[in-house]
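WARN retry 2 of 3 for item q-0093 after timeout on previous attempt; input resubmitted unchanged.
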Amino acid sequence: MEEFRNKNVKFIRPVFVDILGRILDFTIPIEDFEDLIKNGKGFDGSSVEGFARTEESDLRFIPDIDTLAILPWEYKGIENTWREAIVFGRIIEPSGKEFKGDTRVLLKNMIEKYRDIGTLKCGAEIEFFIFKNDKSPVHTDEGGYFRSGLYGEIRKEAQLALNGMGVKTEFDHHEVAQSQHEIDLTYTDALRMADEIILTKYVVKRIARKYGVYASFMPKPIAGINGNGMHLHLSLWKNGKNLFFDDEKRGLSDMAKSYIAGLIKYGKDIQAGLNQWINSYKRLYPGYEAPTYLVWGTKNRSAYIRVPEYQKGKECATRIEIRSPDPACNPYLAISLIHAAGMQGIEEGLEPPEPVEVDVFRLSEQERKKLDIEELSPSLEKALEFFEKSKLVKRVLPRHIYEKFIENKRIECMDFNRAVTDYEIRNYFGIL
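OK item q-0093 returned
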């Protein structure tokens, strides 16, 4: 408390996400912090359902004190200045039981379930656009891959802010498309990484607003250019050892290969949780470095899973990179599904198919059939069909999350199918 007083912290901002992964928050005076720790804070639970609000219930936020961090900026009112501290936590029902719609608890339980086998660690590459405003996707630069363009200062300020809150970053650069940027987060425990992804999006948007521009994590805001991905780097650890590295083979372990095989076998089952918006599927299109087929490789950057090549002396960096998720997903839900599929591959003793080191799009249909290569689902509606029927998904997700997620996504598809789009006006209005 003394540190807070010295830094002019006047409010605590508890944060959590709804089923769709959208950040929700409120603030309490610093004087009520100890009561928050002891008793939590009640709120109306209808907002946690996403768009599908069929009932209201009283829920309570319980802070996870290990996540407490002071936001690096100062708020300025007319007569006062103050700072705030942010904290993640869990949600409980009036009975004291865990709320079944809390995806952060879902991930925490998923990690704990397999802890005897290994602890999941994760890193993230987060891509985003910087546009002139939040009304339309108007470019702010003509930059390209590793060509700085404009607003690199936003990336730097965001990293300094995140570093000040204990979030380690290791890389940033301008991405392939105009106005597109990337910040990479250093690998850490998976639950902490999911928190850091939410926090990074929060910080980037806040700093972009200071510059009078808008940061968008929408998967595909503009057709004809690359979309925003969120590549996740995964490895399993136990007793300080990376289980994805094989000492004798000096490369990927059999456990890692079974994890990959699980992700490929159940890739279509879990896809709706990794690419959860209608717009997500506009990004998963050949030619834009986004995966469209369930393959893996070491050099193939269009693959669903890429394994960075082994480097002597960097055994701890051996990992797999799953490239299909986008930054608009709910990271707690997505990582839970990814880990469940990978661990299922280990439990089944699966072996992955042969790695594919060329862009699958360039292979003939006959060659793809020979290699037994499956496509990812081309739309949210199709992905939901696999998601809804999947025994794995039904087993992994609490019934509440399973049903509410599908309900939300069905509503989204229905609303989109009813809407008249710019494409229809442009191509049909003048001739029909």
